[in-house]
Specification:
Length: 421
């Protein structure tokens, strides 16, 4: 895909006029900077608050106030099935059937539960392949899981790193590594997108290669869901987990999501750690002995639905439903390409875009490695009302989330770089 972009401000204004999603920005609250909305490029870390969250919270507060325990079965959104209100929208975003999705707990917790269901080490097949430099929580989850099984992380974990001199991975290299360890890998567990480089991996090909050697393939989609459309079922991915507070805009610590392929989720014998909320509703309240898993992904639910952790997600998913992930993605590809184009007009700045240049390998994020001035540029942006994220050594991650970022926002970022550095 190639675009014709220009460096004048009129071009950015025209792009926003032509943008069929530009009105969606007004559905969000922005942090304030000197009496004005800040420009927010941190939606890959914590998405903005949809204005509709407030009213949605009031509805459930009222249900609790006026119905108390009756809120489980009555009121506008009976809490007993509250999570079901979220599933159809998430199925659309992830390319799964409703029976393959559940919403419960939070991301790393769900990752642990999935690992306990899907990592079955034996004497010959016990290795776990993951990307080097995975998000720390994922690294800790795997490390502690391995120790939980009485195994040595150094024996078990295969980390795949970029080849010398490069910052991102090649699918070919990933697949070759899987094939090299064909008889010893039990599980391939990668971030669907690396949080640091912004590289989006080829999930379908990685899954196929993993299945080819008879292992299980799971992904952490924290940076992907709500950012890039997925076809998890069609790609045969075994399981995936994600959080809802990044591109899904559901608020800090909001409920996490799980996808479990039908071949596993419909089988009530698939191993899991259970609790009463994953038990068949017909027998859940009989309070009897014997766990009867629900025959779908919600059979992994454990505790009472955390309603107040789901309200932000419900409000936010209504926006996703209204717009559709295809249009969101189309705008996103264009907006990120525009940012890349403008950055490439700055010959005096010594920096490298470490995110892949191909739109198929990235979402709404560019990670910029500044050989010098990284910290100063970050500070200047913040002082100018542009919120971006900084990671040592010199990486600024810029995420123009398409729901609430505009072409003029991106242009503004470029102007500050051009004027000051
Ligand atoms: C954001 C993120 C997390 C955070 O996990 P929580 O359990 O929600 O705190 C974990 N893994 C990845 C890849 C992430 O991007």
């Amino acid at each position: 895909m190639s675009f014709e972009f220009k460096t004048d401000p009129a071009f950015a204004i025209q792009q926003d006029r032509d943008d069929t999603l530009s009105h969606i920005k007004s559905l969000f609250h922005f942090p304030q900077h000197e009496g004005k909305d800040a420009i927010y490029f941190c939606g890959n870390s914590l998405g903005l608050q949809p204005k509709s969250v407030d009213a949605a919270l009031q509805v459930e507060l009222m249900s609790w106030r006026e119905r108390a325990v009756g809120g489980y079965f009555g009121g506008p959104n009976p809490w007993l099935n509250f999570h079901e209100l979220l599933i159809p929208s998430l199925s659309k975003l992830t390319g799964a059937s409703n029976s393959e999705i559940t919403v419960t707990n939070t991301l790393t917790v769900n990752l642990h539960f999935m690992l306990l269901s899907f990592y079955k080490p034996n004497n010959t097949r016990y290795k776990i392949l993951m990307e080097a430099g995975a998000f720390p929580s994922d690294q800790y989850a795997i490390e502690t899981l391995v120790k939980h099984f009485g195994l040595e992380p150094a024996d078990v974990i295969i980390e795949i790193a970029p080849i010398a001199g490069e910052k991102t991975l090649h699918t070919k290299h990933i697949i070759e590594t899987i094939e090299q360890h064909a008889s010893s890998i039990a599980l391939v567990l990668m971030g669907g997108m690396n949080y640091y480089t912004g590289q989006f991996f080829e999930l379908e090909k990685i899954t196929a290669a993993t299945h080819q050697i008879g292992a299980i393939c799971g992904f952490d989609l924290a940076h992907v869901v709500g950012n890039i459309p997925l076809q998890l079922h069609q790609w045969n991915v075994d399981f995936a987990v994600w959080c809802s507070y990044k591109y899904l805009n559901a608020g800090p610590g909001a409920v996490g999501g799980i996808y479990i392929h039908e071949k596993w989720s419909s089988n009530t014998d698939t191993p899991r750690l259970g609790g009463w909320w994953g038990n068949d509703e017909k027998t859940r309240f009989k309070m009897e002995k014997g766990f009867h898993a629900k025959p779908d992904a919600s059979g992994w639910n454990i505790s009472t639905t955390p309603v107040f952790n789901m309200i932000g997600l419900k409000a936010s998913l209504e926006i996703f439903d209204q717009v559709g992930i295809v249009d969101i993605r189309n705008k996103s590809i264009r907006l990120t390409a525009y940012l890349e184009y403008l950055l490439n007009q700055l010959p005096n700045l010594s920096f490298e875009i470490i995110t892949p240049a191909s739109f198929e390998e990235r979402g709404a994020q560019l990670s910029l490695y500044f050989k010098k001035n990284g910290r100063a540029i970050h500070d200047k942006m913040m002082a100018s009302g542009i919120i971006v994220d900084y990671r040592e050594p010199g990486v600024i991650r810029v995420a123009p989330a398409p729901l609430y970022c505009s072409f003029q926002d991106v242009y503004q970022f470029y102007c500050i770089l051009k004027e000051h550095f």
